[in-house]
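Consider today's protein:

***
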Amino acid sequence: MVLMQRRKTRKPWLSHLSFLALALVLLSACATPIGVTRLSTQQAQQILTANALSTGAPSSWSSQVLQRNGLFARFEEDPAATLAELHQMLRQPVEEERFQDRLFALAELSFLHAERSGAREYYLAAAVYAYAFDLPESGAIPRPIDPRFRLAADLYNRGLARGLASPDGAEVVLKSGSYKLPFGELTLTTETSGFLWGGYRLKRFIPVGEFDVRGLRNRYRQAGAGAPLAAEVEPLENNPNAEIARKRIPPRIKVPVTAFVRLEEPRRSVIEGKLAGRLELYSADQTYTLNIEGRDVPLELEPTAALAYGLEGAPVWDFELAGFRVADQHKILGDGLLMTHPYRAGRIPVVLVHGTASSPARWAELYNELTNDPVLRGRYQFWLFQYNTGQPILYSALLLRRALRDIVAEVDPADQDPALKRMVIIGHSQGGLLTKLMAVHSGDRFWQNASDEPFEKVQMAPETRELLRDAMFFNPVPTVRRIVFISTPHRGSYQARGWLLPVIRRLITLPGMLVNQFAALAKAGGPGELKTSQIPTSVENMSPGHPFLKALNDLSIDPSIPAHSIIAVLGEGPVSGKTDGVVAYESAHIEGVESEKVIRSGHSTQGEPQTIEEVRRILREHLGAK
């Protein structure tokens, strides 16, 4: 009986065990050795596009080559030997597709090994393999839709920059010479003409492709071939363009350029291990594509990154308040009219004039957008006017007028470039008042504010007479054919009045030359001949009701010069009674303009997308005007 009882108690335990064994069999049958797992869109894309540049691991295309040749595990254990074996396979006669597969794998795996080992020769190897893959002298060219085509270009660009980098990696050293490769040697000669930029020589090349850019909404980059760099400059000696360059181009400017190594018979040379290449350098403001073996190939360009790098810590930021307050202590390059690149014949100048307590750097957003516009690029050249913004507006306008005259004489002494006679001037805030003064006939309206005596009868030194004549008696600049006002206080700024004016006057130190000239004038002519006892600052000039503004408002823009107005206001609804925080709509609005565009923003609207789009529209319209 006891035995029978024990047997009965075992049966439930055995049945549970049997059920568990059956469940395990069923469960294992669900996870088959081969199958699929559903992923999110992002997960799937990451797996499909993972490569040496994005994840630090071989792409599926290179992994396939390793797996087909039984080299996958060996690459992790001995990458140099694996690459050498793969390179030897290039000598084997195979169909074109297999040859391309091996070339691409060698490019990516060489770069990956360089990243892991720091061996520079493998970066250069990646570049030459990638060149042979994308730009062969013969055989099938990968279709642009093949994702490896773009990835190979990136491997060429990055491999070139890192393979030619200085020991600390901070810059790219562009010079002729022989460079070791894992499978041979690369001999480079240099095309020296590309290193000349106007009156400057390009030097010290900084790789910008891996910079992060801040402060600009859009980063413009043209995908193509070559290592994008930012170059420093040094003046050339005994060069006819050197004087203009030193006078107009800031010495700390950073020039966006692209370095490209052109290889001779890349496939044959890679197999033989002896490569010859020509090192070429192109500035982004002048060259966008190359011709390689009869094919047009775009250059890799990074103009936005170079622009941001040039403005990082630049002295121009310090000028803004300092140049407003103490004119003589903050010198301006040349006459203040600056170029961002050497003069290019056939391109229409666009002159950007900043506002009060500002600087040319505040045009960076607009400049970044317009110089990368496919229609405007190559048709315009952008110049910047820098001036001490605390000094009298008439004096600043005199300096701008002289600079516009002088630059035309400098760059086109034979008067052969009609584009120079189609200038567009764009002024923000106080800069808009200077802009209007380039497009009006003054008559004696401004002199009437200074004296009731005829100008020729007032006693003064010859140099004082010349200064006042140029500042107060003028006609439109003949080369200016269109003007644009942005947030311009035509009737003054409501902030430039009351108790603030004497405070600001105490803060501003006017140019010593002006102060001395005024003192000599008052002494020579006698106090009765002048209506004012002191030189006004620009802020006083912009106070509502000031005689300067009244005189300027009495003057009409020359009818042959189209004018456009962009006005910023804060808030929604009707614009009447609204301001941008500095200038009221009623002050910025003037009659007789070709167009008026209201932007809902603050006073510094020159960097706002709507403002930039309106300027873009105007410049495109100007291209079609006669």
